[in-house]
Amino acid sequence: MAIIISICSEKGGVGKTTTTVNLAGGLARSGKSVLVLDLDQQKNASYALGYIKDGKLTAAELIYNTVAGIETVHSSAIRHNENGIDYIPASPMLTNITSTIANDTDNDSNYVIKRLLSNEVFEKYDYILIDCRTLLDLLVSNAMNASDYIIIPVESGIYAYNGLDKMLDKVSSINNSTNKRLKVLGILLNKMQRTTVSTSLAQSIREEYESMTFKTQIPYCPAQTEHAVLTKTANVFDEKSTLGKTFLELTKEIIDKTK
Asked: Which of 3, 86, 88, 162 is most buried, most CB within 10 Å of its CB?
């Protein structure tokens, strides 16, 4: 059975999608079978993984079909990345998908994504990573209810704490109500710079959330990230780059934590 991890942040610009895609690359490079489910209508993870519009099912159609009870060949929505990462792309239809989920009167609307991922086609994966949008809405709650763990990326800027407590409260609320197995896998210090402010904030977060914070922290490497985005290649994960090497360290930490 797949270990399902949602990558969530109430604050934008923290490197959520970069984390999702590079972690998927690290897991694939480590011999794990991995699927990325893109639930952000901006489709950044989909594009980074090489998605080109092809007329096949996307995450939005799968959600709609799950709610409507339409028989679906789930495997037809899975694309295959050249680096060994499988993924289900997002589409603009996700913008208003919460109204579709809320209208699920025959079943509990909290578990649409969970029911979707319970299809036997997903049993072959070791890990399923869900790239969530920043809104803490019904769609993100659905992702959390389907997940075993949450990763919360936090950038090392002056507003590093913004949204962190809100995310932790959300996880706690869901853990106490609709998904008692949900845990915070880790707070990820991301875009770390060699500045006094960055170092001080990282230290403060580690002191306050010591047991929750990953040992690995991701350096600020704008050139490497921009190159992957501008070239629109699937090679976002490059194990020879500084970013790639660090994400490989994070991958090993996550594999150890989820054994």
From this structure: 88
Integer Rg of the chain from CA: 17
Read off the tokens for 180.
């008692």
Query: Rounded CA gap, 259 and 253, in Å?
Result: 10
Alpha helices in the chain, H assignment, sequence order? 16-29, 44-48, 59-68, 97-102, 112-117, 138-146, 164-175, 196-208, 222-231, 242-257
Q: Is the model's pTM score more than 0.90?
A: yes
pLDDT at 26: 94
What residue ranges define each of the domains in the chain, with the CATH number in brackets? 3-258 (3.40.50.300)
Return d(Cα 130, Cα 186) in angstroms, integer: 15
Reading the block at residue 213, the tokens are 């914070």
Q: How far apart are CA 39 and CA 46, in angstroms?
A: 10
d(CA 235, CA 74): 26
Chain segment 50-78, per-residue pLDDT in tens: 999 999 999 999 999 999 999 999 999 99
Report the alpha-carbon distance of residue 227 to residue 209 in Å, rounded. Answer: 33
pLDDT for 222 beyond 80: no
